[in-house]
């Protein structure tokens, strides 16, 4: 088969399996994302290995699916932002900041401690802790949207905490890498902070004052699906700016883009088109691809205890640290636990940190494998934890009474 036909075959299998697994998962009372993650593991090299069937010989197939999955997470975060309002998100800044800081510090500490417990050198143990500090909000956002509780105190605080988490994690890792390798000066680190601030201020300013009139102008043009196409262009532009200007993950940019478009009268039109595009094609590929990237056969048996301990501390770091920070911020006890559960998932930032560390020779294969395994297990556990923490969808909606001290 030609490379295109091979890609088409893989997409048929991935999409069919994702939707079937998602349906079964919901019938069992769990979020569909759990089924999509699990079926990815089954389709991957751990069992079926669909990317390496005998008739699959395209050198670019895996890369193509990876890129499609990246588009999926960008669209997912855009839709998460589109469901919210900027004022709602900033209303819980105190809770978000304390939850992020608590989860980040405890995750780094526990990760470092676990590494030292197994005889890993200090720098490698600290890098492991930094890798466990970063939260992947995409799985939690998808689960909360399915449960209908994204626009709650917990959902809004969680999304705010995840944005802060991503910024602090990348900043902390950049400082660590600069100190360990001697590749950057104090001036370089300060410039990194300045670039992050410049991006955030520029993105918000553009979204508040330039984007709304642009959307109205595009809406008046005789262009087929012009507003939807413009929204796609803007979300990709925000993602590029986040990476190139702010040195942050692209998902932060697309999330901000969604927040900005949520303020426009065309929100409903954009949401309908973007949801069809995202959930019909790209988002299922993203979640299945997480499982496709895991090969349990490559995990060394000698590292099994390290993997179990690292996974445990990864979960506890967020469950205790983020929940404790949220409680200090004024969130009620049960909602603090719900927020901590939502912060458990790990994703692309974790992979980026351990990949850079591995290439730089700072960690060995055992540490790398344990971090990757912990990322997968935390991602699988998050929907279950959230479902257990929210006894029923609709608890504590924004229409419920809210204490004013929570909105600081």
Describe this structure in words.
The chain has 408 residues and is an all-alpha fold. The protein has a single domain (66-139, 155-278, 302-396, 403-407), classed as Up-down Bundle (Na+/H+ antiporter like fold), CATH 1.20.1530.20. It is built from 16 helices and no strands. Helix 5 packs antiparallel against helix 6 and helix 5 packs across helix 8. The chain starts with a helix and ends in a 19-residue tail after the last helix.
Topology:
Layout: H1 3-27, H2 32-43, H3 61-82, H4 86-91, H5 93-117, H6 122-133, H7 137-147, H8 153-181, H9 186-220, H10 226-244, H11 250-261, H12 267-292, H13 304-328, H14 333-342, H15 348-359, H16 365-389
Helix pairs in contact: 1-2, 1-12, 2-12, 2-16, 3-7, 3-11, 3-12, 5-6, 5-8, 5-13, 6-8, 6-15, 6-16, 7-16, 8-9, 8-14, 9-10, 9-11, 10-11, 10-12, 13-14, 13-16, 14-16, 15-16
